[in-house]
Write a structure and sequence with these properties.
Strand content: 15-25%
Radius of gyration: 52 Å
CATH class of the largest domain: Alpha Beta
CATH architecture of the largest domain: 2-Layer Sandwich
Number of helices: 17
Number of domains: 5
Largest sheet: 7 strands, mixed
Distance between the termini: 153 Å
Helix content: 40-55%
CATH topology of the largest domain: Heat Shock Protein 90
Low-confidence stretches: 489-504
Shape: rod-shaped
Number of strands: 19
Mean pLDDT: 77
Structural class: alpha/beta
Oligomer: single chain
Length: 636
């Protein structure tokens, strides 16, 4: 039985058509892949392989279709002619496919190598990015520091520096020699620690000053491994100028405190010695006739004693232990009143000029000490202009002061009344300016200066809560600028000098006074002086003895005149206990040094009467009478 041939023919035709369709669709997909991943080697390989296989499938299936069609129409001769070409196409495409198959492994290896290279490149880029980010973070950290940081290699080349270092040395750049940048040298510094740090591999800490920078630095120098493996030196420079200034300020304060303590003790003892000398000399002189030859000798003794007293006052002034009695003062008025005295102090070839501000603020100050400031600065200006010149005194209000005190180093901020004293002399050397306010420092010859004048000015100014600055240029002149705190303006200015004068004879009285003094000589003089003035006087050599007397006779005692510093119990404590017995009691203090018992930081308390040792009978008589006649009571 013959099997029909036509099903096979139709299956071959339909299968060939399906293969052709699939081949063309595969070629279409291959072109899309090439378009999307055209730079991918493996994708290109798949594209070429798919294209060849597709062509092979088209040739193969197309050959089958042509064969079946020609045979169906009995064109056997035609097929016989085309069959070799169809077979050749199939063979060629099969050979290409076989070649692709052979070299697929090579392509895979190449793809693997290329992927590895791409991965390595990506990893390298990532590492570079991490390194750059790390370097940026490190740079940000170092640039954020307030210390100057720089790194030097073994050849003295600067290979790294931060922002602060660039601020200190704007001309710095990488590969510069460290000694040229920091010290302005052409060769290594003698004190260089580079090789010592690298060889010993240990850190060094030292103080240092760079050339051209007026600051002190702490240098920390230590070895470190650089990013390329080299051993280099890392230097961290910390500005300690402010710290050094504070240390100097503290040392100065401690020195002044020690000097003040010594000065206070000396003032107390020496003034106790001078008080009876001056007092007895004055009392004896008053009893002599005007033509007595002894008067000249007594005056000589008194003059020497007063000179010694003045020296003690100067020591107290520069040590800031002087007793001040501040009141509201018009500085312009004080300058004007002192002008006549200053004209006698300076030479005729020196012109004295005033430039006083209108509506000058009032200050709280001791008028006598203001006069001392003006006199000392005028004398200093006079000595700076031996061939003549101009002495200019100026005042002004400054509500926005912002500077530093030349003497104590403190910041000066806020409203101040400014007193300026200028000369047109030769100027002051900068090294001298650094020491000019030191006690006993002088550039004048022997017997031409004590070295206390400007130190007194400095002490008085600071005791008033003020500050002082000095500006000087060679061959131009010098200006002392004094800043004094302003005070609120009252209805009227108090003239503390106006009520110190008693016209005519010394004031007398008949009241009863209890005198308390632990120095026997001072007690004797004070008692005798008051008795000669008509007072009924009781004496006590210690506070406890005085309190016993007061308890028994407080109804008869009108006033207590007491020393301040007296061993275990001071004069203030004595007056406090006495006031508890008699609140109407008048009290008056006397001392050569109060040790802050009745004066805080040298400023006398309000509402009390005080006489400074050494005093003469006239001063004592006036102050006692003022105390007795006053309505004021001291609240202990």
């Amino acid at each position: 039985m013959n099997t029909p041939w036509w099903p096979v023919v139709w299956v071959d035709i339909l299968g060939s058509l399906v293969v052709v369709f699939i081949a063309f669709y595969a070629i279409h997909l291959a072109f899309r892949l090439k378009k999307i991943r055209g730079e991918d080697v493996f994708a290109n390989y798949l594209f070429m392989l798919t294209l060849v296989i597709g062509v092979f499938a088209v040739f193969r299936s197309g050959g089958h279709l042509v064969k079946q069609i020609l045979l169906a129409y009995n064109y056997v001769e035609w097929w016989s002619a085309l069959a070799p070409f169809s077979g050749a196409g199939n063979t060629l495409t099969f050979a290409v496919i076989f070649a692709f198959s052979i070299y697929y492994r090579k392509v895979g290896q190449l793809k693997g190598e290329m992927d590895k290279a791409a991965f390595d490149l990506a990893a390298s880029k990532a590492m570079v990015a991490v390194t750059e980010a790390s370097e940026l973070r490190m740079r940000a950290i170092f640039d954020g520091m307030e210390d100057a940081v720089y790194v030097v290699d073994e050849d003295f080349k600067i290979i790294f520096y931060n922002r602060k270092m660039k601020e200190l040395f704007p001309q710095i750049s990488s590969q510069d020699k460290c000694y040229k940048v920091t010290m302005g040298r052409e060769g290594r510094c003698e004190e260089c620690k580079l090789h010592k740090v690298l060889l010993d591999k240990r850190k060094i800490l030292r103080e240092f000053t760079f050339v051209g920078i007026e600051k002190r630095f702490d240098l920390l120098e230590l070895p470190m491994d650089w990013i390329d493996g080299r051993l280099v030196k890392l230097t961290v420079a910390r500005d300690i100028s402010e710290q050094k200034a504070l240390e100097a300020q503290l040392a100065h304060s401690q020195k002044m405190e020690a000097v003040g303590t010594l000065a206070g003790g000396l003032a107390h003892d020496i003034n106790n010695m001078l008080t009876p000398i001056i007092g007895h000399v004055e009392m004896a002189r008053r009893k002599l006739s005007p033509d007595d030859l002894m008067i000249a000798r007594f005056e000589a003794i008194g003059k020497c004693a007063k000179r010694a007293s003045s020296l003690i006052s100067q020591v107290l002034a520069f040590s800031r232990r002087q007793i001040l009695d501040p009141t509201l003062v018009d500085l312009n008025q004080r300058v004007t009143e002192t002008t006549s005295m200053l004209k006698h102090l300076v030479e005729e070839n020196i012109a004295l000029e005033l430039k006083l501000a209108d509506d000058l603020w009032l200050i709280s100050a001791d008028s006598g000490q203001l006069e001392q400031i003006l006199v000392n600065l005028a004398v200093n200006a006079r000595d700076a202009m031996p061939t003549g010149g101009t002495l200019l005194i100026e005042t002004l209000n400054n509500k926005d002061v912002s500077t530093y005190c030349r003497s104590c180093g403190e910041r000066i901020i806020g409203p101040y009344v400014v007193l300026m004293v200028s000369d047109s002399g030769a100027g002051i050397d900068q090294e001298v300016c650094k020491r000019i306010f030191e006690p006993y420092f002088t550039t004048k010859g022997v017997n031409k200066g004590t070295g206390l004048g400007l130190s007194m000015v400095d002490g008085i100014v600071h005791q008033h809560g003020g500050h002082i600055n000095l500006y000087s240029e060679k061959d131009t002149g010098t200006t002392f600028k004094i800043y004094l705190p302003s005070a609120d303006k009252p209805d009227e200015v108090i003239d503390i000098l106006g009520d110190n004068a008693f016209p005519g004879e010394l004031p007398v009285g008949k009241e009863t006074i209890l005198v308390v003094e632990d120095n026997e000589d001072v007690l004797q003089f004070t008692t005798e002086c008051l008795m000669e003035l008509g007072y009924d006087v009781m004496g006590a050599s210690c506070p406890d003895r005085a309190l016993d007397i007061f308890k028994k006779k407080h109804h008869d005692i009108d006033m207590i005149l007491t020393d301040v510093v007296m061993g275990a119990k001071n004069g203030r404590q004595l007056v406090r206990e006495a006031l508890q017995i008699n609140p109407q009691l008048r009290s008056m203090f006397m001392s050569g040094y109060t040790d802050n018992i009745i004066a805080h930081h040298g400023i006398m308390e309000k509402g009390l009467f005080f006489i400074n040792k050494p005093f003469n009978p006239g001063d004592l008589a006036v102050m006692v009478r003022k105390t007795l006649d006053s309505e004021r009571r001291f609240s202990a």
